[in-house]
Protein: NADH-dependent dehydrogenase
Amino acid sequence: MGLNIISRRHFLGRTAGLAAGTFAGPNLLLKGQNAAGKKLRLAVIGANGKGQSDTQGVTLDHTIVALVDVDKKRLDEAAKKREKHHLDSGKEAPNAPKLYQDFRKMFDEMANEIDGVIVSTPDHTHYVAAMHAIKHGKHVCVQKPLCNYIAEVRDLHRAAKEAKLTTQMGNQGRTMEGQRLAKEWIEQGAIGTLKEIRLWTNRPIWPQGPLVKKAAECPAELDWDLWLSSEASEPYFEFEIPAGVNGKRGNSVHPFNWRGWWQFGSGALGDMGCHIMDATFSILGQIIPEKIDATSSPISDTCAPVWSDLVYHMPAGKHGALKVSWNDGSKDGKPNKPEISPHMTSELAKKAFEKASSGMMFIGTEGTVFEGEAYCGSPVIYNEERYTQVRIDTKAGKIKKTETRSVMPNNPQGEWAHHVVNGGLPSSNFDYSCPLTEFVLLGNLAVRAQQSVQWDKQGMKVSNAEAPNKYVSRPAYREGWKP
Structure:
């Protein structure tokens, strides 16, 4: 398993044979540089917000040649922030990148000047932006979730694999030490036999639920038509926030509150699932559930719910068949969290659980691996005596490090760029992150179906009902957007 990473020499030979005017792949031997000193030429689509931190992950070691953002004001801010990041790091900022509002125009004008592309747009534009990059032969790093429809995830995976490109999803927990420790502990018997997994998050922290669009004046600096990208043209809108819905983030869909709308985002589950479910997916051997049960607050055809409860029924694999539960949002003003593990009986354990707004519990017959945040960065074991013994066994070599470590922990963009230059697989390459994203989105499929769904992985369809299958693929793409 894994992408077929081609050597720089082979890649040059392949791209040199492309006819003039066709899509060109990146030149991996710019100016005679060797791998150790190689600076990639990178473009960032969705340059502000999360795109800004993604830019900071690579800009000191590589060259940002283009920034793209549909909001002119935010685009200019992103360029200034990048320059400040260089100056604050004690390094002179290189030449300013070219600025675009339309990534299609960027590819038309300077595709041959780009080696790789980072995509940090709202979810609905991930697929079209990444596919444009792939069809131009560019390595891609795409924010989580890779797409908000399962069919798009599969198509993106296929295209990148056929193009033999280096890929990555921006779920930083996958690069961290903690997730690997949790997997090693569980596989080597630190908590006995794994029996159940409980996951939760306090998201949504944006308006979500029974929202109603209302016409509004579009901000002058925003190109709303480009923001919609592949979605059908419609007037700019804001929305009314009903009682019981978190309205702290305001009522504007741009630049943040798009997450709760099915057409643009993927709700609390899509936002945080690729983080919180990541360790689970890895520990269980990257398997896909057979059935998903779902209950939630009222939903609509347009918006995700205020809260949801899911149960993923996992087949036997590296571990026996078990259930993975997911809880998000708030019920009656209280966090929608699972019950605490029976192994977490001490006051220290109870306080840790109470404090955790997001987290995970891997419950075994003899103990529980607990993490009170989203990335599984610093897991511990309860009860405390068992954790002490695990640390003693690790020091004595009885519990071994068996997982490959990341070359750049907590920097998925930097890790991706490193492997573009040096070969090898990033931690969350598409062979890993596409099935992980599908795992996550199956929960949304069940929520939207408002029933239990049985998933036919090979057929990419719900097998126990026909109606939910309309949520597997995006309904339509606006002309001029699907690559």
